[in-house]
Design goal:
The protein is an alpha/beta fold. Helix content is 16%, strand content 18%.
């Protein structure tokens, strides 16, 4: 009976070993050996410089780093690996001949954090190409032939921190990648150097936070020279941003097919860069950010009187918000001055100074002043127009009458005594007039009653109306006219 018991125990042992191996295989434990063309060290597989035209099959599922650089790979299809490599965090594919990558090629490696596709023959980056890589942090695409970047190529890559696109043929600046709160919220480095960029969205770049501009590399591009470009890079130089300080000699622009350093554009007569102060009016609400070169820094604000600004203090008009910004609830004239922000981080500390100018009037009152001045100006213009209308569009007096009315004996009273300075309007009498000297002729009527011409008494107490005889004959003026002729004796005025 004992040999049968031993045999039964042996069978139970073999069955247990079989079940154990089955469970190990189900759990994805390493059951595949290292490929013949690769060198394996723990969870690292190096298949570099093997002239491989395709990716080796049956890669171990425990692989964490896979090096396929310096081979002859030309296409990366969706089925490039039949095994799902969930532990893979680094994939090196540089120095191959890749000209096509399937949009599903990265589905088997969802936890990839580092991807090197540099020094290949890629020409375009299609939409949703890297959307499966939602935890990727570093992407290297430099030294390819990339000409077009789809606006959706980097969608859903919320963890991407560094993107290298240098040494390509990109001519459009991908602004959607660097806008604050856009597709790549954690992007701290974007290398676009050595491309074919000619024009930049300068106003948009100026608005970017310093921690983005610090890692935005634009050197070795044929940028168009102008003063706005000079002001942009001068500001970055003033802030000691790495993207400018590390490559000052390689920052150039093109003008008349000649290269010029962006900091030496004397031929454009650009004004020197000066840091601008913040401006506010009485009663304004204002927020000033501590624009540091690194995210997540601890920030402390100090007032011009060297007092620390506290957070969320009751009945205080100046406070520090949770993101480290300085907030003025109602700006007062005593708030003007230079404020200092002390920022402390893991890598370095930073000190920033910001000047605030406060105008001693409210913005609303300023508009009222402008409205009053505008109303006064309109009133003056209307007054001038009315005066001109009165002077030139009123009914004509005696000089514009075309037909002379017969004189009235009752109107030509000898007792009338008036002085007129109205010139002779006879068109025939102006031939001998000196054009350079303005002469006015007036005729006086004798004050005595019943006197005729030259003081002689004329019966009938009336003045005779002479007939128009010739060129030199003077005519009597219209008795209804304001100007009347009372004497033949001229008085030169």
């Amino acid at each position: 009976m004992q040999p049968q018991g031993d045999l039964r125990g042996l069978w139970l042992l073999l069955l247990s070993l079989f079940l154990l191996l089955f469970e190990v295989a189900r759990a994805g434990r390493p059951v595949v050996s290292c490929p013949a063309s690769c060198l394996c060290a723990s969870n690292i597989l190096s298949c570099s410089k093997q002239q491989l035209p395709n990716v080796p099959h049956s890669l171990p599922s425990y692989t964490a780093l896979l090096d396929l650089s310096h081979n002859n790979l030309s296409r990366l299809r969706a089925e490039w690996t039949p095994t799902r490599l969930t532990h893979l965090h680094s994939l090196l594919l540089s120095h191959n001949h890749l000209n096509f990558i399937s949009s599903e090629a990265f589905s088997p490696v969802p936890n990839l954090r580092y991807l090197d596709l540099s020094s290949n023959q890629l020409r375009t980056l299609d939409e949703f190409l890297f959307s499966e890589l939602q935890v990727l942090e570093v992407l290297l695409l430099y030294n390819n032939h990339i000409m077009a970047v789809d606006r959706c190529a980097f969608d859903d890559m919320t963890q991407l921190q560094k993107l290298y696109l240098s040494q390509n043929q990109i001519s459009r600046f991908p602004l959607e990648l660097v806008k604050e709160g856009a597709k790549l919220p954690k992007l701290t480095l974007l290398d676009l150097s050595s491309n074919k960029l000619k024009n930049l969205p300068l106003p948009d770049l100026q608005k970017l936070p310093a921690w983005i501009k610090n890692g935005l590399y634009l050197h070795n591009n044929p940028l168009h020279c102008d003063c706005e470009l000079y002001q942009l890079f001068s500001h970055w130089q003033y802030r000691q941003l790495s993207s400018v300080m590390d490559f000052q000699e390689d920052l150039y622009c093109m003008s008349s097919k000649k290269l010029h350093n962006v900091f030496n554009l004397s031929f454009l007569n650009c004004s020197e860069y000066k840091e601008r102060a913040w401006e506010a009016h009485l009663g304004d609400s204002l927020t000033i950010k501590c624009d540091t070169k690194q995210q997540g820094m601890t920030k402390v604000w100090v007032t011009p009187s060297n007092e620390r600004v506290l957070e969320e203090v009751a009945n205080s008009t100046v406070t520090v918000s949770k993101d480290g910004s300085l907030h003025f609830q109602q700006v007062q004239i005593e708030h003007g001055g230079v404020y200092t922000c002390y920022a402390m981080g893991e890598a370095f500390n930073e000190t920033l100074s910001v000047e605030l100018k406060v105008y001693n009037f409210t913005l609303h009152g300023h508009h009222d002043t402008l409205n009053t001045a505008y109303t006064t100006l309109v009133g003056c213009i209307l007054s001038v127009v009315l005066v001109l209308i009165y002077l030139y569009l009123t009914p004509c007096r005696c000089w514009c009458r075309g037909v002379e009315k017969p004189s009235s004996h009752q109107a030509d009273s000898l007792s009338s005594s008036m002085l007129s300075t109205t010139p002779n309007h006879d068109p025939m009498a102006g031939g001998d007039k000196d054009d350079g000297f303005d002469r006015r002729v007036a005729f006086l009527e004798p004050a005595g009653p019943a006197q005729g011409q030259n003081g002689k008494l004329k019966p009938g107490n009336t003045l005779p109306v002479p007939e128009a005889t010739g060129k030199g004959q003077r005519r009597m003026s219209d008795p209804e006219s304001v100007s009347s002729v009372f004497s033949d004796t001229p008085i030169v005025v």
